[in-house]
Amino acid sequence: MRVLSFPLLILCLLFSHLAPGAGFLTGLGQRSDHYICARKGGTCNFSPCPLFTRVEGTCYGGKAKCCMR
């Protein structure tokens, strides 16, 4: 019994560490707004956008702005 419980414990620990990495894809085929902003060449800022940039969307679930030139 002790021999089987150790591999089971290792598998449980492995899968518990993989779960946070699943947050990169927010749904089936959908990317996070931060990824989309960066892919378009923008940056995510919690403060106002720097000079000569404009707001093109949101990041982090609407908490930050996606700023682009």
From TrEMBL:
<keyword id="KW-0044">Antibiotic</keyword>
<protein>
    <recommendedName>
        <fullName>Beta-defensin 1</fullName>
    </recommendedName>
</protein>
<feature type="domain" description="Beta-defensin-like">
    <location>
        <begin position="33"/>
        <end position="67"/>
    </location>
</feature>
<dbReference type="GO" id="GO:0002227">
    <property type="term" value="P:innate immune response in mucosa"/>
</dbReference>
<comment type="subunit">
    <text>Monomer. Homodimer.</text>
</comment>
<dbReference type="GO" id="GO:0050829">
    <property type="term" value="P:defense response to Gram-negative bacterium"/>
</dbReference>
<dbReference type="Pfam" id="PF00711">
    <property type="entry name" value="Defensin_beta"/>
</dbReference>
<dbReference type="GO" id="GO:0005615">
    <property type="term" value="C:extracellular space"/>
</dbReference>
<feature type="signal peptide">
    <location>
        <begin position="1"/>
        <end position="23"/>
    </location>
</feature>
<dbReference type="GO" id="GO:0031731">
    <property type="term" value="F:CCR6 chemokine receptor binding"/>
</dbReference>
<keyword id="KW-0964">Secreted</keyword>
<keyword id="KW-0929">Antimicrobial</keyword>
<keyword id="KW-1015">Disulfide bond</keyword>
<dbReference type="GO" id="GO:0050830">
    <property type="term" value="P:defense response to Gram-positive bacterium"/>
</dbReference>
<keyword id="KW-0211">Defensin</keyword>
<keyword id="KW-0732">Signal</keyword>
<comment type="similarity">
    <text>Belongs to the beta-defensin family.</text>
</comment>
<dbReference type="InterPro" id="IPR001855">
    <property type="entry name" value="Defensin_beta-like"/>
</dbReference>
<comment type="function">
    <text>Has bactericidal activity. May act as a ligand for C-C chemokine receptor CCR6. Positively regulates the sperm motility and bactericidal activity in a CCR6-dependent manner. Binds to CCR6 and triggers Ca2+ mobilization in the sperm which is important for its motility.</text>
</comment>
